[in-house]
């Protein structure tokens, strides 16, 4: 996996605002994100951190707000690239992620972060469409309930949508085992 980057999407403090977002799933997601980050850094593999810079006035993810800061699980991170985005896909942000990856000969990436069914899924889909070998670390993501749909249902549907079409869906444990 020497050419495999880790891309962590929107691991931001603003997602801790339960009054704004509502109920979430997968309380172990942050520990899995941290485990992936630690493994990548230990092996000096490329790490990309992306943050969502919301333009909505009431969003806790607005630039300049404490919610825009990365969560504590990313403290001590030594990323190769950090940038913001205002839309769901990390491929449409302040940096041309596709060009950055290709310039470095990176043809595959592991994706984790927040939210499973929005920014993570969209980035995985675009990565797959651009020809990258995408591994989606499902248990290193989480999302929130939507009207009429629970976070757990969205989580399962995202896995089904991505599997064998846009990405390989794996657990953090299986991804880490493949690094060994």
UniProtKB/TrEMBL annotation:
Residues 52-73 are annotated as: Disordered. GO terms for molecular function: hydrolase activity. The keyword Lyase does not apply. Residues 4-173 form the Isochorismatase-like domain. Pfam families: Isochorismatase (PF00857). Keywords: Hydrolase. InterPro entries: Isochorismatase-like_dom, Isochorismatase-like_hydrls, Isochorismatase-like_sf. The keyword Ubl conjugation does not apply. PANTHER family: ISOCHORISMATASE HYDROLASE, PEROXYUREIDOACRYLATE/UREIDOACRYLATE AMIDOHYDROLASE-RELATED. This is Cysteine hydrolase. It comes from Amycolatopsis eburnea. The lineage of its organism: Bacteria, Bacillati, Actinomycetota, Actinomycetes, Pseudonocardiales.
């Amino acid at each position: 996996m020497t050419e495999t980057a880790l891309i962590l999407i929107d691991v931001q403090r603003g997602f801790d605002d339960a009054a704004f977002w509502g109920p979430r799933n997968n309380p172990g997601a942050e520990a899995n994100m941290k485990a992936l980050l630690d493994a990548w850094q230990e092996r000096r593999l490329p790490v990309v951190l992306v943050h969502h810079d919301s333009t909505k006035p009431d969003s806790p993810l607005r630039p300049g707000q404490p919610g825009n800061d990365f969560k504590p699980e990313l403290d001590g991170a030594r990323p190769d690239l950090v940038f913001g985005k205002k839309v769901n896909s990390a491929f449409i942000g302040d940096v041309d992620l596709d060009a950055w990856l290709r310039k470095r000969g990176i043809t595959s990436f592991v994706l984790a972060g927040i939210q499973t069914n929005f920014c993570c899924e969209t980035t995985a889909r675009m990565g797959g469409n651009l020809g990258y070998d995408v591994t989606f670390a499902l248990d290193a993501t989480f999302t929130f309930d939507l009207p009429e749909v629970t976070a757990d249902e969205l989580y399962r549907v995202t896995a089904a949508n991505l599997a064998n079409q846009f990405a390989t869906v794996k657990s953090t444990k299986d991804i880490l085992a493949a690094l060994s």
